[in-house]
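Could you help me review a protein record that somebody else here produced? What it holds is a sequence and that sequence's fold in token form. I need someone to confirm that the token line plausibly describes how this chain folds. Take the sequence as given and treat only the tokens as open to question. This is what I was given:
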Amino acid sequence: MSVIFTWACFLLWISSSTAENTPDVVVTCFNSEDCALPCTFQPGRNETVEWFRQDALLYRFDRNSSKESFNPDQLAERASISPQQISDGNATLILRRSDPKDRGTYRCHVQTSEGRHKAKVILKVEAPIRRLFLEQSRLSGYEEIKCSVQDVFPPPRVTWATEPPTFEDLRPVTRMHAKPNGLYTVDSRLRKLKSQPDLIYICKMTSSYGASTWTTSLRERDDWDKLLQQQQ
């Protein structure tokens, strides 16, 4: 009986000292806007809170010394946490003016008198499509249609189609240029089909995160009427 009692106490001690883990959280924020990375836990005393970004220490707060510190190389000028809310079990990290370079994995580690808590937040930053541009040009004796978008992230997937459908290979040429701020300019060009007049050329751009699809079209006529673009 004494052996069984000893093992029961040992297993109970392991269970009580195990860290509290929460499922991974995926947060998507818009470029240049403030972003909240959640971390909530069971309130206790003597809290120590640490936030890591890509395994590098970003923030640390120690209740015993009332000391708060940021790593100067890890978003120190744009990240903040409220020590007052930590007492209520809220160690959410606020990231101001987020941009694509902030993407990645963040981890929140909390130690209190009630135990340990760990949370992982996967941050995505999106600069959504606001408007598509569609225009025609004439180069080297053939007519070309250009579909473009500026300042987006991540770069969208571009597809072309015609109405009515054609069995010819459209063969668009799509280029993506990354700017220093991490945003993209996307330019997709399609040569007009000479053998099939009176077609509607349709350019579709879909966000890599699947949040939205934008479509714009151009009807081939003598005046090349441009149709309205729409978001789905």
Observations:
- The chain has two helices and 18 strands.
- Residues 197 and 220 are 7 Å apart (CA to CA).
